[in-house]
Amino acid sequence: MLQETLKVKFKSIVGEMNVEDTQATLYAYSYDATPGFQAMPDCVVSPRNTKEVASIVKLCNEHKIPIVPRGSGTNLSGGTTPLRGGVVLLFKHMAEILEIDEENLTMTTQPGVITAHIIKAAEEVGLFYPPDPGSMQISQIGGNINENAGGLRGLKYGVTRDYVMGLEIVLPNGEIIHTGGKLAKDVAGYDLTRLFVGSEGTLGIVTQATLKLVPKPETKKTMLALFDDLETSAEAVSAIIANRIIPATLEFLDQQTVRVVEDFARIGLPTDVGAVLLIEQDGPAEVVERDMAKIEKICRETKAVDVQVAKTNAEAEALTSARRTALSALSRVRPTTILEDATVPRSEIAKMVRAIEDIAEKYQLTICTFGHAGDGNLHPTCLTDARDEKEMILVEKAFEEIFQKAIELGGTITGEHGVGAMKLPYLNLKVGEAGIEVLRGIKQSIDPNNIMNPGKIFTESERNRVVI
User: Fold this and answer.
1) Pairing assessment for the beta strands 336-339 and 377-384 based on DSSP bridges
2) What CA–CA distance (Å, rounded) separates 296 from 307?
3) Which one, of 154, 169, 238, 240, lies nearest residue 202 by Cα?
4) Which positions ≥6 away from 431 have C-beta within 8 Å?
5) CB burial class (10 A; 0-12, 13-18, 19+) of residue 286?
6) Cα–Cα distances in angstroms (integers) from residue 281 to residues 215, 221, 276, 316, in the given order
7) What number of helices (H) and strands (E) belong to the chain?
8) Is 345 in contact with 230 (CB distance < 8 Å)?
9) Which terminus of the chain is more exposed, N or C, with fewer CB under 10 A?
């Protein structure tokens, strides 16, 4: 329990209105989008600038008070749940785009800016910020950086880390450092920028970021390819990549997901096929036309039932938006929706999809599968009920087998959601015990008092000792 004297000190730093500890507020920030992880913080603090963040962190470090930096709470791995009480840090006052530098093709932003606003601001000056996580309409860029968020365009354009050029970071001791910058090249020492991107708030607090922008694509086209089953659609994905075509978007949805999404979005998606590929290409008009013609030919050769090209921008946007609603649509079916993201090499997608189907059948669970097929990032999503203790035991066993299969196929336990608390038991499957010790060593050297988002990624607990 946080002492009242410390809350008074917080108020002296950020102002009385920016320290909240009512039961309603604490409850609102006791969980994120991850089922099954909830714990109350002691207070919620909203700093107004980097100096205030540093002062709060220094005070917390002195008294060994846990700090959980938090964006919009869309995290799916328990990463922003305050498992050990302490302070939840919000960035509602640090939500400005500070600069768009058209000469250096960069944007400088505070952590509380909504991702979609960053994309829109770049496009308004003819530039492009490609990372587009499914939660982009509500997620914040600081959270994207902490989790190294991906998105539908990850196949062609990469993920958040590929667009973070520099950071301003408050370290656990309250010191402020700056990494990288508006530089095309910089090999001065260790790459601290990349170390902090994806560190899930366990090493420091991002208070400012310099992002890379690229020229906005001239045009784009969208198509749906329909298949009798998931395996055939996965074969089509492999064939597209093998033919040296890299679409901007290459997503797939299984029949169960398509039916639920169509019931939710009502845009005319076909519900009588086994799987759907959503494919988008962007770039110069002639390149887009050529690539889409090749992709259509490949899909038909791999036994697509039908291939449909969007006739208007509105139709194309409706298709893409429908894909983005997959999680929201599925969450309407049963009380608990557990969305995961096992990732495998693209060449192993068909095997992974079949394994997910077999595991679901083995445990008699409803697991819908969709995801970023182009980069092998699959989202097996279990529709269940957390109140059913027996079924939840089966759900945990099923996901453990899914992660083990992903590792067996040369993949990983998470492609974009992070480890957080949800996947902590499975980290050693990917990095091994020696790898966990390396991670722990980095954490200990930067955050010796373990105040930064404790209980995430790894702990001393036996929970991270799952073995194949």
Assistant:
1) antiparallel
2) 7
3) 169
4) 438, 439
5) exposed
6) 15, 6, 16, 11
7) 15, 18
8) no
9) N
Give tens-digit pLDDT for 347-376.
Answer: 888 889 889 999 999 999 999 988 888 888
How deeply is 462 buried, as exposed, middle or buried, from its count of CB atoms within 10 A (0-12, 13-18, 19+)? exposed
Residue 217 has what DSSP assignment?
P
CB 256 within 8 A of CB 202: no
Residue 342 sits at φ, ψ, to 5 deg, of: -65, 140
> Which burial class, exposed, middle or buried, applies to 184 when counting CB atoms under 10 A from its CB (0-12, 13-18, 19+)?
exposed
Phi, psi of 35, rounded to the nearest 5 degrees? -65, 140
Q: What is the DSSP letter of 66?
A: -
List the structure tokens of 109: 């932003």
Burial class of residue 186, CB neighbours in 10 A (0-12, 13-18, 19+)? middle
What is the token pair recorded at 269?
A: 């998606």
- Reported as a single tens digit per residue, the pLDDT across 156-174 is 999 999 999 999 999 999 9
Quick one: which of 44, 50, 49, 52 has its CA closest to 17? 44
| DSSP secondary structure letter of residue 38 | B
| Kind of pairing between the strands at 164-170 and 176-180 | antiparallel
In what side-by-side order are the strands of the sheet with 336-339? Answer: 306-309, 219-227, 275-283, 249-254, 366-372, 377-384, 336-339
pLDDT for 459 equals 65
**Closest by alpha carbon to 415, among 357, 463, 371?**
371
Q: By C-alpha distance, which of 463, 461, 443, 445 is closest to 453? A: 443
Pull the structure tokens for residue 23. 């039961």
Backbone angles phi, psi at 378, to 5 degrees: -95, 145
What's the chain's length in residues?
A: 468
> What pLDDT is recorded for position 231?
81
Please state, rounded to an integer, the average pLDDT across all residues of the chain.
92
Q: How far is CA 211 from CA 113, 163, 165, 166, 230, in A?
A: 13, 5, 6, 7, 37
At residue 37, the pLDDT reads 87
pTM: 0.93
| Matching residue, tokens 């402020």 | 176
Please give the Cα distance from 225 to 241 (Å, whole number): 15
Tens digits of per-residue pLDDT, 86-138?
999 999 999 999 999 999 999 999 999 999 999 999 999 999 999 999 899 99
